[in-house]
Amino acid sequence: MAGELEAEGGGSAAGIGAGLTRFDYIMHTDTSENQESKFHNLSIDYDANPETYAAISTLLGKMPAQFSNPADGIWTYQVVTGSNDEYFDFINVFLDILEGKYDELAQLGVLRNDIQFWLNYEYHGQCNLEYPPQQMQRLGKNGVTLCISCFQIRSS
Questions:
Q1: Residue 127's domain spans which residues?
Q2: Cα–Cα distance for residue pair 92/117, rounded to 1 Å
Q3: Per residue in 27-86, pLDDT tens?
Q4: Quick one: pLDDT band at residue 114, thresholds 50, 70, 90?
Q5: Within a domain: 121
Q6: Residue 10 falls within a domain, yes or no?
Q7: 2 domain-assigned
Q8: Rounded to 5°, angle at Cα 82 from 79 and 84
Q9: How many other CB atoms are found less than 10 A from the CB of residue 149?
Q10: How far is CA 6 from CA 63, 97, 107, in A?
Q11: What total number of domains does the chain contain?
Q12: What is each CA distance from 125 to 36, 51, 101, 122, 155, in whole angstroms?
């Protein structure tokens, strides 16, 4: 599959343009009201160069999210899951995408501290998150930052 890019996820954000913040990127949702959703994002800060954007996509073999714009300097791969979906082990899946490619990313100007995993969780009631020590250890060894934002869905 070399040279092919794989796209996944949902959460369309067509129409979002340049000049947005990371918060704007991670919080765009188009899920139905009262549906719990998790937005799993692999985000990479880079020099806002279209060639670098394309090179990251090719290197990682993933299509960036529709809202990801080369001019904004944040490349984002997103997988959206709902409350009825099977568990998505985003930490291990995203690390599998990255491991073995850090030297090539560095040649593009992307360092490990430019990489973040985001979990944005829309929920009802109580929000509990739990990660086993093996995942946290692997994440730490890779030098990747984990960011979590939880937002309670309000009924209208």
A1: 22-152
A2: 11
A3: 444 445 557 889 999 999 999 999 999 999 999 999 999 888 888 999 999 999 988 899
A4: very high
A5: yes
A6: no
A7: no
A8: 135
A9: 13
A10: 6, 11, 22
A11: 1
A12: 11, 44, 40, 10, 11
